[in-house]
Design brief:
This protein is α+β, with helices and mostly antiparallel strands. It has 3 helices and 11 strands.
Amino acid sequence: MKKTLEFKAHDGEIEDIALGPDNKVVTAGRDFQCCVWQQDQLVTGLRWHENLPGIPDKAYRYQACRDSGTFLGLGTVTGSVAIHIAFSLQRLYYVKEAHGIVVTDVAFVPESQPGRELLGGHEAALLSVAVDSRCKLHLLPTRRSLPVWLLLLLCAGLIVATILLLQLAFPGFL
């Protein structure tokens, strides 16, 4: 193997590292941060005081990370588990103290046939393993969105309403 890049990612030790899509790298460090990198450039990062106001930084530390391409799964030293959107790091799922103690690893259920059967109607499934000798499955409910047909119907209604208003405001418009 040949080293291609070296840079300082964290103050102190790196707890976990995961490779994501588009050559992105996710790191969880002992400095209480989780970072997404593109080469040696910081794309975005998470800190407890920004995402969970009122909870001091020192109370939690990211311990494990995995990036499925769409989602970022995180485990902490306090046993908490979270799922974030990978590109924006918006939190979608959080369970405080899902385990009694340190989450040592997290992994997304693969999108194979058995994995899809396990998912059921959920958007993602994350497995977490902890020092408490337990493995837990976390299911992310499918986010609601408007069906395409309803969106098209609303657009058509808006166009018709605009034409009618223009006809009322300017007689002889059409």
